[in-house]
Each structure stands twice: as C-alpha cells, then as structure tokens.
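wait is this the right file?? whatever heres the structure
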C-alpha cells in the first residue's frame, strides 16, 4: 500500500475510534505504549495522572467521564445539528451523507456504533478512511480512472460535509475537555483534517 495513503487511512480510522467511543483498556494500553504519543498529544507529558495512575484509575476517574461530558452531555457530534436551520439531527434516509455512503457501499451499523444518525463525526471520519483505502486498491489494480474518481470524491465529501461543520464542533470539543487527552485530540483532529484537505487539493491540482 502507498505509504502516504496508508498513513492517511490509518489516521482517519484512529480519529474515528477516539471520537466514536469511550476508551477501553486495550486502546488505552496501546496509547500509553506508543512511543510517538506525545507528538499527537503533547499535553500528556505534563499530566500527572497519565504518568502515575493505573490504566483502570485513569479510565474510570478521568478519561471516560470526560468523554461522556463532551460527547454526550454537552456537545452534539452530528453534522446536521450544525448545518440545519432548525438545529435538528437528521436521523433518517434524508440525511445527505447517505448519498455518498450508498455509492461506495458504506453501511452504518447504528447499534454497534451507538449513533442515532449517519453524520456522526466518527462515522464521517471512518468513511474518509474507507475512501482512501478504495483509492489505494484501485491503484494496486492499475485502475487509475477509478482511483482519481475516489480522490475527487474525498474532496467533494470534505467540501460538502466535513469542512462545513468540523471547526465548530472540534473547537468546542477542545474547550469542553477536562483532560489533556481530549483537549489535544480536538486540536490534533482539527489540524489533520484541514491539512489533509489541502493535501488532496494539491494532488488534484497536480493532475490537472
């Protein structure tokens, strides 16, 4: 797999996981053992709880209560809440993201993902990962036309959906956070998404 595509796909998947669910012990252990973690979450370096508490204590006393506070109690992680005039969540088939999802066979398992609409931030990021993997598969098969179509779909999806609301959500996400983990997650996710959008435009412009 193309290294850049692999990195992009994996990072969208990583962000999707962290923004969709609370952490579990396995994920927390992987984060704490990651040698590059402070590049993504720099404020963890000075967080005493990260350095000194056990995994269970960290999850139960700090990290998961913070996730609940941000994503369930205070903020609404659905695009339609930010883009509809009535600020309602569009939970049915009329949600416009489904047009993109259906074209690429992306099915949202609502119960498994514990979401009420397909435009949850974690789902939209997972879809970006799927598109990038699809682009790579097309390139492996020397199907340049399909690869270019999927690349253009990434740009279109970001412009039609992600870019229109992600700043509002992630800036608020960052300032609602009570832990350095989620503060840094909001900042890192926002920076990556806009950097990736710029990258997509550079690649497309270079092909024209």
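ok assuming it is, sequence goes like this
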């Amino acid at each position: 797999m193309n290294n850049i595509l692999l990195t992009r796909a994996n990072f969208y998947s990583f962000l999707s996981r962290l923004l969709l669910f609370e952490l579990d012990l396995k994920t927390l252990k992987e984060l704490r053992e990651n040698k590059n973690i402070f590049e993504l979450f720099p404020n963890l370096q000075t967080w005493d709880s990260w350095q000194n508490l056990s995994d269970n204590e960290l999850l139960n006393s700090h990290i998961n209560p913070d996730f609940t506070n941000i994503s369930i109690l205070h903020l609404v992680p659905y695009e339609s809440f930010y883009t509809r005039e009535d600020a309602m969540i569009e939970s049915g088939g009329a949600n416009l993201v489904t047009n993109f999802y259906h074209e690429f066979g992306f099915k949202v398992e609502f119960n498994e993902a514990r979401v009420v609409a397909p435009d949850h931030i974690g789902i939209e990021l997972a879809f970006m990962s799927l598109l990038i993997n699809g682009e790579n598969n097309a390139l492996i098969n020397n199907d340049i036309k399909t690869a270019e179509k999927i690349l253009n779909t990434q740009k279109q999806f970001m412009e039609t959906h992600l870019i229109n609301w992600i700043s509002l959500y992630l800036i608020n996400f960052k300032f609602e956070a009570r832990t350095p983990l989620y503060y840094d997650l909001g900042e890192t996710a926002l920076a990556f998404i806009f950097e990736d959008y710029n990258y997509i435009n550079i690649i497309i412009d270079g092909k024209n």
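The chain has a mean pLDDT of 94. so i think its the right one actually
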